[in-house]
């Protein structure tokens, strides 16, 4: 597998795989994958500049294990979560959880005019390109 795409919703997986073809494996995070740690300080490390303290959600450990398994075989990873704050947070959390050494080529991607068969892919650093 050359390309791995991670989306939020499992209902999107088959449609996107058909559209992208055999060079892509599409998997779903099934929404958020991390929560703030429950503590007296509400998951915030005050001594470290109010840094949030995250943990993988209990019901997402299997999902994360599956995602990690697929990232091992991927040359390029696309984080294609929804283009809203929630989607951005999910992409960031997945990126933080995964082995960053393996993520030398990773993209954040948003869909524009999906049914018209255009995708806009956005590099983590903000560079935009159009796939056909």
Structure, described:
The protein is α/β, with parallel strands linked by helices. It has one domain (about 5-30, about 60-130): Rossmann fold, CATH 3.40.50. It has helices at about 15-20, 60-70, 85-95; strands at about 5, 25-30, 35, 45, 50, 55, 75-80, 105-110, 120-125, 130. The strands form three sheets. A six-stranded mixed sheet has the order 2-1-7-8-9-10, sandwiched between helices. It starts with a strand and ends with a strand.
Strand order of the largest sheet: 2-1-7-8-9-10
CATH level 3 topology = Rossmann fold
What's the count of strands? 10
| Helical residue percent band | 10-25%
Secondary-structure-derived class = alpha/beta
**Which stretches are low in confidence, meaning pLDDT under 50 for 5 or more residues running?**
120-132
Q: What count of domains describes the coordinates?
A: 1
Short description:
The chain has helices at residues 13-20, 61-71, 85-97; strands at residues 3-7, 24-28, 34-36, 44-45, 51-52, 54-56, 76-79, 106-111, 119-123, 128-131. By secondary structure, the chain is of the alpha/beta class.
Keywords:
single chain; about 130 residues; alpha/beta; Rossmann fold; 6-stranded mixed β-sheet; two-stranded antiparallel ribbon; 3 helices; 10 strands; disordered C terminus
């Amino acid at each position: 597998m050359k390309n791995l795409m991670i989306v939020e919703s499992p209902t999107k997986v088959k449609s996107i795989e058909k559209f992208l073809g055999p060079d892509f494996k599409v998997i779903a995070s099934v929404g958020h994958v991390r929560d703030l740690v429950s503590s007296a300080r509400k998951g915030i490390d005050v001594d470290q500049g109010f840094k949030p303290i995250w943990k993988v959600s209990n019901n997402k450990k299997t999902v994360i294990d599956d995602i990690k398994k697929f990232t091992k075989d991927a040359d390029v990873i696309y984080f294609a979560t929804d283009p809203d704050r929630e989607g951005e947070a999910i992409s960031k959390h997945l990126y933080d959880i995964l082995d960053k050494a393996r993520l030398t080529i990773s993209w954040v991607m948003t869909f524009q005019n999906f049914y018209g068969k255009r995708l806009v892919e956005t590099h983590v650093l903000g560079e935009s390109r159009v796939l056909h």
